Amino acid sequence: PQPQQDGNQVIPSDQPEASNSQTVSAKQDQLLKNIEDHDYRFVFNSCAIAMAIASMGGAFIDCNQLFISLSEYTKQEICGLTIFNLTAREDLQSAFDLISQMISPPADSCGFAPSCVLRGNMKNRSDLGLSITLIKDEEGIAKCFCVSLIKNPDSPFDDSTQIHATAEFIREDQVHMMQSDNKQGNMSSPAFMAG
How far apart are the C-alpha atoms of 195 and 192, rounded to whole Å? Predict the structure, then answer.
C-alpha cells in the first residue's frame, strides 16, 4: 500500500479507521492552535449571550458587551465586583453554599460541568439572574467561572430550563420603558386652567 502525505504526517492508507479519526483530531488540534487570541476575544464579545468570566474567588475578570449593556454597569465597574455583588441579598447564603459545592471535588465525576443559578441584583433590572458554571482545564483543575445572565429564576434551587439573556432583553426593556413613559406622560400633563 502507498502511504499518503497529510501535512507533516505520513499516514499509511491501509490503517484502520481509528487512525483516520486520530488524524482528524490532530487536524482539529492544529487548527485550534492556529487561532489567534484576538479571534477568541472577538467570538466572546460577539456572543449572543451575556457572559462574564470570574476568578475562583468570584471576582469578575472580563465580560462581553452584552453583559455590560444588560447589567447596566461599565466594564470597569463589573471588574470591581464579585458574583456575590450581583446576587440577590436573600440568595447570598445559598450562593456561598452552592459555589462551595461546585468547587469541592465530587465523589464521582460524571463529566458534567458543575453549575448553579442565582437570582440577580442588578442596578435597575429585576428580571435578570445568574447562571454560573465552573470551568476546568484538560486535567480537571478548576480555573474560573463562566457567568451568564439569564431570566431571573424563581429561586436558587430552580432547575427549570434557563432562558439566557440576549439582545432581545434590551429591546423588551426599551419597549417597556417607552410604554411606562407614555403612561406617566399622559397622567402627569398639567391641567388646563383658564384664567
Answer: 10
Contact 35, 19 (CB under 8 A): no
Q: Which residues on neighbouring strands pair with residue 147, listed in sequence order? A: 52, 132
* CB distance 123 to 72 below 8 Å: yes
**pTM across the whole model:** 0.65
Q: What angle do CA 144, 148, 152 make, to 5 degrees?
A: 135
Kindly give, in sequence order, each residue whose CB lies less than 8 Å from that of residue 150, ignoring residues fewer than 6 positions away: 117, 128, 129, 130, 131, 162, 163, 164, 165
Contact 79, 72 (CB under 8 A): no
Residues 6+ positions from 77 with CB-CB distance below 8 Å = none
Least confident of 56-60, 67-71, 97-101, 167-171: 167-171
Residues 6 or more apart in contact with residue 188 via CB below 8 angstroms? none
- How far is CA 71 from its chain centroid? 13
